[in-house]
Design a protein that fits this description.
9% strand; mainly alpha; globular; two-stranded parallel sheet
Length: 92
Amino acid sequence: MGRLIQIWVDGGYRGQDFTHWVMDVYRWLWSVVTRSEEQKGFVVLPKRWLVERTFGWFNWSRRLSKDYEILPETTEAFIYVAMIRLMLKQLV
């Protein structure tokens, strides 16, 4: 299975100290997704929309709609199950 390489984050994560820490510890590339200053109101941001949509899909899974689990490994397993279900649905 491939490793996580690049992360798209909200504009709230623009700090240089945190960015350098993530790059040093995890070796992830960090891209801040922000809207341009001349745009007003709601704007769909390209990569951020993918993440928000995926989190919305997780709400369809009962075990992921609330934080029921004690161990993070259990939550991770249910995320895999939810994503497998979504991918299988796309095949049909």
